[in-house]
């Protein structure tokens, strides 16, 4: 199947009445597809994915189309959103410690590459912190430099261990023995109805 066919198939999954904040609907996607504006159609479908609980297949189709168009960050984002439908959504406001106060001297890459450890309140039998791993996606930016703050999305390696978190909880990022930053939970959503709790990493 070519890019147009994939985007058309994804468009057919969007429920009638779903619209973006700018009142873009699936009809607008079809207009762009008619004029061979594939990248714009893909971007709009990604935006429309925020307006409903899209199944993993929707995001898999968009991931495939983005790959065929050579849009790597878009492809990674669609993979990420598909994973969130299976394991749930965790959003947080992350503040990194300044360079010189932690191990990190360079920016965190924004597209889900980094898999740091987190103190999310889980404890070992002796009461010591038991750290958990989660990937980090920086929203609205290609990266996050030391000393900066930004909203992020977290994709846990073991999502069940993160289920106790609620908005307002504070968690701590570790890349070594010294804390690299802290985050305040903004949003926690469970997996969609077709979801699985196992994340392919």
Task: Give a structural overview.
The protein is α+β, with helices and mostly antiparallel strands and 201 residues long. The chain has helices at residues 3-13, 26-34, 38-48, 56-68, 72-87, and strands spanning 89-96, 108-109, 117-119, 132-138, 143-144, 149-156, 170-174, 179-189. The chain has two domains: 3-86; 88-189, Translation factors (Elongation Factor Tu (Ef-tu), domain 3, Beta Barrel). The protein has five helices and eight strands, in the order αααααββββββββ. α2 (26-34) packs antiparallel against α3. The longest helix is centred in the middle third of the chain and has 16 residues, at 72-87.
In short:
By secondary structure, this protein is an alpha+beta fold. Helix content is 30%, strand content 23%. It folds into two domains: 3-86; 88-189, Translation factors (Elongation Factor Tu (Ef-tu), domain 3, Beta Barrel).
Mind summarizing the main beta sheet? Answer: 6 strands, antiparallel, barrel
SSE order, one letter for each helix or strand: HHHHHEEEEEEEE
Per DSSP, the total helix count is 5
Counted up, domains total: 2
Low-confidence stretches: 194-201
CATH architecture field of the largest domain: Beta Barrel
The counted number of beta strands is: 8
**Category from helices, strands and their pairing:** alpha+beta
Overall mean pLDDT stands at: 91
How far apart the termini lie comes to 27 Å
Name of the level-1 CATH class of the largest domain: Mainly Beta
Shape: elongated
């Amino acid at each position: 199947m070519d890019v147009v066919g994939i985007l058309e198939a994804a468009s057919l999954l969007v429920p009638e009445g779903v619209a973006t904040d700018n009142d873009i609907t699936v009809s607008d996607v079809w207009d762009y597809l008619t004029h061979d504006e594939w990248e714009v159609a893909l971007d709009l479908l990604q935006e429309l994915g925020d307006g409903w609980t899209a199944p993993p297949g929707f995001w898999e189709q968009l991931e495939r189309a983005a790959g065929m168009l050579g849009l790597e960050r878009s492809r990674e984002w669609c993979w990420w959103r598909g994973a969130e439908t299976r394991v749930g959504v965790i959003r947080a406001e992350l503040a990194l410690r300044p360079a010189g106060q932690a191990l990190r001297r360079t920016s965190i890459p924004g597209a889900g590459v980094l898999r740091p450890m987190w103190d999310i309140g889980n404890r070992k039998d002796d009461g010591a912190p038991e750290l958990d791993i989660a990937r980090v996606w920086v929203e609205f930016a290609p990266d996050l430099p030391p000393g900066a703050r930004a909203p992020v999305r977290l994709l846990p390696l073991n999502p069940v261990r993160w289920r106790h978190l609620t908005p307002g909880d504070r968690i701590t990022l570790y890349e070594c023995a010294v804390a690299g930053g802290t985050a305040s939970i903004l949003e926690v959503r469970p997996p969609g109805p077709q979801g699985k709790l196992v994340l392919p990493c």
